[in-house]
User: Fold this.
Amino acid sequence: MDNWKTAAQGEVYLKRLNSLPVPRGWTELKAECGRVVIGHSETGHHHVVPDGDVMVYEKPTESEGMRILRMIVKNTTKLEHLRDFDTHAPIPLDPGHYEVRIGRELDPYENLARRQAD
Amino acid sequence: MSKGGGEILTSEKIKELRVHALKWRDIAYQTGRMDREGVKEAARQLYLVCNLEKPVVAIATSPLVLAISYGLGVVLKISDDDALQKVVNTISDAVYDAPDDKNKLACRACVRLGGKKALMHARNWESAYQGGCMWPVNDSFITAARDVLGAKLPNPEKYAPWEYLACHSGFRVVHEKFCIITDFPDILSVDRESRAHGENGPSHLWQDGYAIYSWHGTKVPDEWIKNKDTLSAATVLAEQNMEIRRAGIDIMGWNRILSDLGGHIVAEDAPEVGVLYDIFLPDAGERRLLKVRCGTGREFAVVVPNTCNTPLEAQSWLHGYQVSEFDLPEIRT
Assistant:
């Protein structure tokens, strides 16, 4: 299914947008080892997109545990999950603009929202 | 010949590739003792083909000893094999003798021998780490291309020592002056899907007693396996890493988790949207918990604000949307 409007790969939620300019002050993510890490994992099981196919910008401040990104896909590509087992299947990405949100949860002891970590 | 000009894989070749993959799986899961002298010589050869100076080489009994010895190697600047091996053995003895907290006693031994600076470098051991037999993926592909498909490697003599170490040794640290290599574990236990897993004991146990506990591929705290029967739901839910928390829930089972927490259903939706429970967490009080199935079919537990009254409201909150602006994902993996 390539013409989706919303998709999720684990804790990464994607929403297709109309082509909107990236708001001022958002910072572009740098590639690491030829990949842009969309969702970071403590254990190295990152969610990534190949460098060169996308430009990804991050909202400067996390709002209540939520990490928000804007992704501009230049060439057809896919979001992949780097894990050998229990792997989230790749999500196809057509050229266009996307909002990406990394899920959050409530820390029951601190009563504060925090980013989901895996 | 295919349209692109490449050879099409025959069924015989595919069979051979499967056998080859199994061979490398077995290499990754080796236990017992490695050929120390052979491995040390291969390490020297590896430095030689990389045009590096001949290193000082020693063997460690476990990855913990490897990491600590790396820090000491950086600080002590030891120039012969025997002296480095003596230092490594001192750490091995400290780890072997430690009844419980092997990390703590290994760190103490490190500070005693090399000061706090050595411990600081030891914490950075991963920067100089190579996986040996536990990094089989690339080598299984390279050797499959060579041995099954007939590819010619450009510099086979340069690959030879790397391949030997990939087949015959464990983790190693490679520093410009020294190389320390870990022996195989005594126990390496996996589940049916070849993921590290120990139902009632460690998934990995090395000769000095250093152990790793895993649950279907996820590393978990030792106590969760050692004291499975007394593991509490509150302990599991206090874990911040979702994968480790999910493994803890799997160890305990949802029934025991919910019974431990006095959980009762607030609202229910499709499994991928979730079931919302009220629970009581010691030190946190009344909380709302969403049990949700992800695209891989596994079930996770996520605490959400008590203001969420339906799984859909909880899902919206998890992604920072109002319910009115949130759409459930059309595809979920």
